[in-house]
Every structure is written in C-alpha cells, then in structure tokens.
Amino acid sequence: MPKAHVKKGDEVVVIAGSEIGRRGKILDINTKKQRAVVEGLKMIQRHVRKSQQKPEGGIIKREGSIHLSNLMLASRYDERHGAPAETQSAEA
Fold this sequence. Notes:
Blueprint: E1 11-14, E2 23-30, E3 35-38, E4 43-48, E5 58-63, E6 65-67, E7 71-73, H1 74-81, H2 85-91
C-alpha cells in the first residue's frame, strides 16, 4: 500500500474540487484507492432500507470520500497562505 501524506485525525484543508477552501478532520483513509473521508465535507445522501436498527428507513446524509491529492495539512496550508482570519484577529 502506498503511504499517505496525511493520517487519521489530522486537520486538513481541501485545495481542489467542489469543497475548495473548507477544513475538516480526517475520519478514515483508504490507501489502496488513495481517498479520505473528511468530517462534514462532501456530504452524500444514502437511501436506507427498513431494518430492525432503522425501522422507518429513509434517507440519511453522510460524508463521501475525497482524493488525497486534493487535501493538504491545515498547518502547512496556514504557513503558505497565512493564518486564517479568525486566528489573525485573535492575536491583534
């Protein structure tokens, strides 16, 4: 399996794609497919069949995966592009 530049629990910034500029924490990584699931990003809707755990069934929202090449560590991103506006105002 190829090694990833990020790991589970890291805070990352999306640098390309439809979620560009958004931040989140990595929940899961699939190194074979080179994809990561980031908390609160790339939300998808799943249709759930009725079962004993979910007797009503229905549509649930959950995170989809993002390719690792579209992610950058938040600390590294802040070094390159300056700290986010919230951090700058807190220091001043």
